[in-house]
UniProtKB/TrEMBL annotation:
Keywords: Copper, Disulfide bond, Membrane, Metal-binding, Transmembrane, Transmembrane helix. GO terms for molecular function: metal ion binding. The chain crosses the membrane at residues 17-38. Disulfide bonds join 90-94. InterPro entries: SCO1/SenC, Thioredoxin-like_sf. Belongs to the SCO1/2 family. Cu cation binds at residues 90, 94, 179. This is SCO family protein. Signal peptide: none annotated. PANTHER family: ELECTRON TRANSPORT PROTIN SCO1/SENC FAMILY MEMBER, LINALOOL DEHYDRATASE_ISOMERASE DOMAIN-CONTAINING PROTEIN.
Length: 220
């Protein structure tokens, strides 16, 4: 009996290792490019400040303004708003923040200025009287001082992610306050768009860029 001889089929040569590496790099590049394009499509403007992904609606609050009149911040009132929580006895961060915002305002046209308000919300209601707040905010320009009583102040601060605490207490009216240093940028329809950290405030041109973008592109 003649044994059957099995014909061997040719085997394809293996892909060189460097070709696999090139294909892997191309695949990773494609994935990263897609992610970058998706991010750009979702948020076409590269905010200087830290942008809110979901642009939540800002929280309303009420108090007394620096003229002694009742005041309510109602998000979506038609003006772009920047909010900073601070106090008039603040040694450096608060005055410098308001000073930088004043420099931004000085670079705007009168029409742009009319579309923007700055609220300086006191985290020290016992010492920040109406008179003191008025003197403080008018020194830095056209901002509005707002005194919110407790416990409404705590609720408003918590809604914006702001913390504050008395420190170095030496007496009833002798103390300092540690507090968050972010400035909140809210568009004319009442949506939180970005937070400027205190370390970013000297970059006036870039603050202006964020402000003007939000002014022209509110969330609909």
């Amino acid at each position: 009996m003649t044994p059957q001889v099995q014909e061997l089929q040719p085997v394809a040569a293996g892909r060189p290792w460097y070709m696999s590496a090139i294909l892997a790099v191309c695949l990773v590049t494609l994935v990263l490019s897609g992610a970058w394009l998706f991010t750009r499509a979702k948020s076409p403007y590269p905010f200087f400040g830290t942008a809110y992904d979901n642009t939540p609606t800002a929280t309303a609050f009420s108090g007394t303004d620096d003229l002694g009149k009742p005041f309510t911040f109602q998000p979506g009132s038609g003006q772009v708003t920047t909010i900073f929580f601070g106090f008039t006895n603040c040694p450096n961060i608060c005055p410098l923040t308001l000073s930088y915002l004043s420099k931004v305002r000085a670079q705007l046209t009168p029409e742009q200025q009319a579309r923007w308000q700055t609220l300086f919300v006191s985290v020290d209601p016992p010492r920040d009287t109406v008179k003191r707040m008025h003197e403080y905010v008018t020194y830095f320009g056209d901002g509005k001082g707002v005194i919110v009583p407790e416990p409404q102040l705590s609720a408003a601060a918590r809604a914006y992610g702001v913390g504050y605490q008395k420190v170095d207490v030496k007496g009833l009216s002798d103390y300092q306050i540690n507090h968050s240093t972010g400035t909140y940028l809210i568009d004319a329809t009442g949506h939180l768009r970005a937070i400027w950290d205190y370390s970013q405030m000297p970059q006036v041109e870039r603050l202006k860029g964020d402000l003007l973008y939000v002014m022209e592109h509110p969330v609909r």
